[in-house]
Amino acid sequence: MKRRFALKSIAALGFAAAVAACSPMSGGNDIVDIAAGNEDFSTLVAAVQAAGLVETLKGDGPFTVFAPTNAAFAALPAGTVESLLLPENKDTLVSILTYHVVPGAVTSDQLAGKRLGVATVQGSNVHIDGTKGGVRVDKANVVSADIMASNGVIHVIDKVIMP
To answer: Which domains does the chain carry?
Structure first.
């Protein structure tokens, strides 16, 4: 009887540990908090604010965000970022930013060795290629992977991807 209880307890603990390992961290900083705390994402944070997406990306999720750096935004044609931040271009900005977000928390090890077309929050598919030793999202390279947030995961990319 005691042995059966012990086995059930061990199985329950193992299951709980497996679920916890697959889930984003509970507590801690969310995706917006992490981005706002990193100077390399100041343009992204300004764009998320201008698009009115802060509350969405602070939500429960989970989300996977392919986050372009300031350098990625700076590589766009001159005036593009400034134009996108104007109130009259909010719909376009929302479309671009939500193209960088995939529902669910997807880590780089789940992408390794695979080629996928994944539906974004924007509605279009983004092409992910994890077959050549790294991960590419459309024409952007993931330069830093698996930054865990309380509501998902961030992968830093070197280009702004367009729907």
So the answer is: 28-157 (2.30.180.10)
